[in-house]
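Collaborator request, handled under Task 6.
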Amino acid sequence: MPEVYVTNFNKNFTGVSATAAGVARAQSADYDLALVGEPLPDLPAPISRVEAVRLSRTPPPGRPFSIWHVRRNTEMRAALWARDVLRRPIRIVFTSAAQRRHSAFPRWLISRMDAVIATTEAAAEFVPNVRAVVHHGVDIERFHPASDKVSAWSETGLPGQRGIATVGRIRPEKGTDLFVDAMLRVLPDLPEVTALVIGKVTRGHEAFAADLKKRVEAAGLSDRILFPGEVPTDQTPALFRALSLIVNLPRYEGYGMVPLEAMASGTPFVATDTGHYRAFSAQGTTGNVVPLEDTGAAAEAMQRYLTDDDARSAAATRARTLAIESYSTRREADAINAVYEQLWSEG
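Structure tokens returned to the collaborator:
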């Protein structure tokens, strides 16, 4: 019987999916672990919710109960049904990244968890029963630097000699328009650079995305600011290590994995002051954090990194080092495992 059930009920591959996958890959060496719901990269095929509930009827050998690790409202609801209605011998661990007050129903769900893990100290202020603050980590084996960025960029088949990108859903909250505004300022002076707006346009944001493309076209930069859509997860690491700079300018972010994945790839970043970005920047040595919605400051930071090879190289080296020392998925998994072990010891 599995000791740990990792739930993933979202068919889309989101930031939550990425963090769950990274931790589960590390934990699979520590526990008999089952993925429940939708597939995740480099993990065994998932079991269904019905099968998870059935298997949870019997505690795993040597354990008083199994643990369901959940990260979304739908997953909390399923786990609560299994524990409180069907009376399965399980305990529920919830990871919370939001740095704002949850609405009423999620607050009730979270209050019913056996343990809550917050991803930052700020997130811990908005949820009860926090057992630990555990920063998300990055798979430093999967995301690693290129031996030669020029060659790596050439291998992508994309135009130009160097690349810069923003990654995330194309919508106002993610600040996609801020990135485009900054690119319209920066690119005319850097003819060798190609900018990528990577991400999915979801329902309700089609007009927003269309307007961005019209602005790019009006500036005569349609061949240098590209909208390739989503990049398959198995291709993301190669692209990240080929980029010279990653830029994420959201108006709000709970945590934010993209700059961290960039750091592990030896790619510095520019980001707005939200999520955990300021901590990632290590006082500006691995990346640059600018005020919210300050397109001018973002453009200035991008210009500096793209024109100063020494500054960019130093930031890239420091970024990779910090990712290894402080933000690996192995460190994250060990800290989460400690919460599991505490629950099991309490019996």
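The cover message to the collaborator said: "The mean pLDDT is 96. The first strand starts at residue 4 and ends at 8. Please let us know whether this matches your experimental observations."
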